[in-house]
Amino acid sequence: MIKKLDIKDFQEEITFNPADVLNEALINPEEEITRPPIAISIGYKYEELVPLVTFGNFCCIVGASKSMKSFLKSALLACCIGGKSQHYFPEIKGHDIAGKYVIDIDTEQGKYHVQRVVKRVNTMVGQIYQGYKGLALRPNTPKERVAFIEWILTESEFSGKIAVLSIDGVADLIEDVNDLKTSNEITQKLMTWSNDYNIAIITILHKNFDSSKPTGHLGSAVLKKAETTVFVNKENDIVTVTAKYSRNIPFDDFQFSVDEKGIPFETQKPF
């Protein structure tokens, strides 16, 4: 169990100088600005890698309960590490990950089930990858989880050396997904964390039972701000993955299943 932290409200006091913001934010139309480097790609289109998420941005996986969202997350993390994982998902690849950490935070499951997730990723990679760290934050409160993530990024031994941060699930960072203020605040946290620490963030959200939208005000806020929003839909033993919203070229739909050992693998592209 992770030791609880002595924390304050995560709405910080800030000193705001509009002149400084103007100088930083003003866009020069003649400046050559390159696209942020890709952290995880899925396939090729038009002779280019198709980004799932770039460094400095975040993406979101959305699906119904028990729709294999966490299995897709495991596949993304394993493939961004590399090793033997491309045998399971040939087109998912990580970029500029070597020598950096992949941090996998689970807010829903206990240590036993989180360990199974960690073993799944390592099995796909083909070894125990020392740069991959799984963490179980189920016992902690939403504010403690936010404070812990801040600490991981700023003060821990991993600070400054993180490539990918996964948060499964982001709804557990706030008390109420229908509270507009805190939903916007935590979405802003995702944007700030990814930008300030130049990391790629993967988040997971449940979708509403009777619609295709992610849950609550939080789902709406994340949907608007995510670089890519991926929807998973499970029918029998087959899960279809769709890049429903993307600021980049969307990857083609693909499908996966899970073998008898609990390891996800790509089956085929749907017609």
Structural commentary:
The protein has 271 residues and is α/β, with parallel strands linked by helices. The protein has a single domain, classed as 3-Layer(aba) Sandwich (Rossmann fold). The chain is 28% helix and 27% strand. The protein has 6 helices and 12 strands. The strands form 2 sheets. It has a 9-stranded mixed beta sheet with strand order 6-5-7-8-3-9-10-11-12, with helices on both faces. β7 (162-168), α5 (180-196) and β8 form a beta-alpha-beta unit. The radius of gyration is 18 Å and the shape is globular.
Write the layout of secondary structure elements.
Layout: H1 18-25, E1 38-45, E2 48-54, E3 58-63, H2 69-81, E4 92-94, E5 101-106, H3 111-125, E6 132-136, H4 142-154, E7 162-168, H5 180-196, E8 200-206, H6 216-225, E9 228-235, E10 238-246, E11 254-258, E12 264-266
Parallel strand pairs: 3-8, 3-9, 5-6, 5-7, 7-8
Antiparallel strand pairs: 1-2, 1-4, 9-10, 10-11, 11-12
